[in-house]
Amino acid sequence: MSSEVLRVRVKALEEELERLKAQLRAETEEKSQTSESGSRQKKQRVEKPFDFSAHPRRHVALRLAYLGWQYQGFAVQENTDNTVEARLFEALLKTKLIQDRQTSCYHRCGRTDKGVSAFSQVISIDLRSTQYGGGLGVTVPADVDVKGKTSADELPYVKILNRVLPHDIRILQWAPVESGFSARFDCQSRTYRYYFPRGDLDLELMAEAAKRYEGTHDFRNLCKMDVGNGVLQFQRTILSASVQPAQLPHPSVHNDPHQLFVFQVKGLALLYHQVRCMMALLLLIGQKLEAPEVIDQLLDVEKNPRKPQYSMAVDYPLVLYDCHFEGVNWRNEIEEEIHILNTFHQHWVQNAVKTQILLGMIQGLQNTSTEMGSLQCWLMEGSRQKKYQPLLSRPRCESLESRIQHFVKRGRLEQEEGENGEETTVFRGKRSKHAHLTTTNQIQNKNSEAETEESSLQNL
């Protein structure tokens, strides 16, 4: 074969190679465009809005438990999303059980603070339902044709939510309720528990002192006055208050300082930080730094209209133990109960083992000549005083009247003239259930004997 023929053949092969490369590039681009188009279509299908108007809604109560130690409280806050309620609504929205919070008819029973846990928090809310045939708490949209649609079993609300909630927040039960039911306003009573070690406390004295809380009293000296949110009345009813062992001790163990006890208080409604202030007084009484009569003196707002400065008990031992409702028939999901128990057993094993390790370290360092330090000092906020100053001889906080005037100046409260010519204070924002109209002259009369000194709250 001549060289000329070879050159022609090589050139033809090179042209064929370029043609094949161009064809391959075209096919690759076409395949890529087809794939991208398919992905966009798939994405569009996923993002298609859920049609809530095609489904019934059901007003239900949900009972939940949570470990609040890692959260900034239960209720949603403007400055953080690390709250139990924020996680709860993320789960409700993700599972398409609600369209949004604003239209869900949501109420909470109690508002626990940072670090506080709950065994039995209750909320009421409208959730998506399968009950086209109606039922307790069910609302079927008027434009939905229910002919031919049979009501299937109700959605397993507990299972659905627990699969997407953090492990330290668990839905326990649900119940269908009337459309007007409110977890906040229909609650008959709320029970709180505060856990603490025996230490060297006089438990009998504490139990006797706790009984003095029972009844209807003005608790302004045993709470943080939340005047800025419209709470202007501080009378609350305590149905029962007691100090008792958290569990029965082993017969061979007598007066173990590490044995846990519980202060349990049951009331109709409680004030901001009320239980922690009540517990702080009991700890002082248990150490015999104060007499039980100091409770009666602080509940007498005629003689003591201004709160002495003292530290609260810390937050993490406090638990919302129970919210009681009449006529609510809770529904259990048996399989989910096992799942919930396994979750809490996991938490218990981890913490019980850590507790025993710490106790072993403590016992290993102690000997017969070593005096154990006070355990209860770790349950009080702030630093401990070297020389104790009795409560009633301490500087006082601002009076209720001063707090009201402060928020009037800031525009949070308004003062109007009542029917009898007296000044009446009205909250301008969202009203609390207990934010009733308050006659300023009555407050002035109660505080007329008080000193006008206004000092800021400090740790004592």
In words, what does this structure look like?
Keywords: Isomerase, tRNA processing. Belongs to the tRNA pseudouridine synthase TruA family. Residues 24-50, 411-435 are annotated as: Disordered. Residues 209-326 form the Pseudouridine synthase I TruA alpha/beta domain. This protein is α+β, with helices and mostly antiparallel strands and 460 residues long. Among the domains are: 57-141 and 151-176, Alpha-Beta Plaits (2-Layer Sandwich); 189-249 and 256-326 and 335-366 and 373-382 and 389-418, Alpha-Beta Plaits. The protein is built from 9 helices and 13 strands. Strands 1, 2, 3, 4, 5, 6, 7, 8, 9 and 10 form a 10-stranded mixed beta sheet that branches. A 3-stranded antiparallel beta sheet has the order 11-12-13. α4 (203-210) packs across α5 (274-286).
Instruction: Give the overall shape, derived from the CA principal axes.
Output: elongated
CATH superfamily of the domain at 189-249 and 256-326 and 335-366 and 373-382 and 389-418: Pseudouridine synthase I, catalytic domain, C-terminal subdomain
Number of strands: 13
User: What is the CATH C-level name of the domain at 189-249 and 256-326 and 335-366 and 373-382 and 389-418?
Assistant: Alpha Beta
Radius of gyration: 32 Å
Largest sheet: 10 strands, mixed
Task: Please bin the fraction of helical residues.
Answer: 25-40%
Q: Which percent band covers the strand fraction?
A: 15-25%
Q: Which runs of at least 5 residues are low in confidence (pLDDT < 50)?
A: 430-460
SSE sequence, one letter per element: HEHEEEHEEHEEEHHEHHEEEH
Mean pLDDT comes to 85
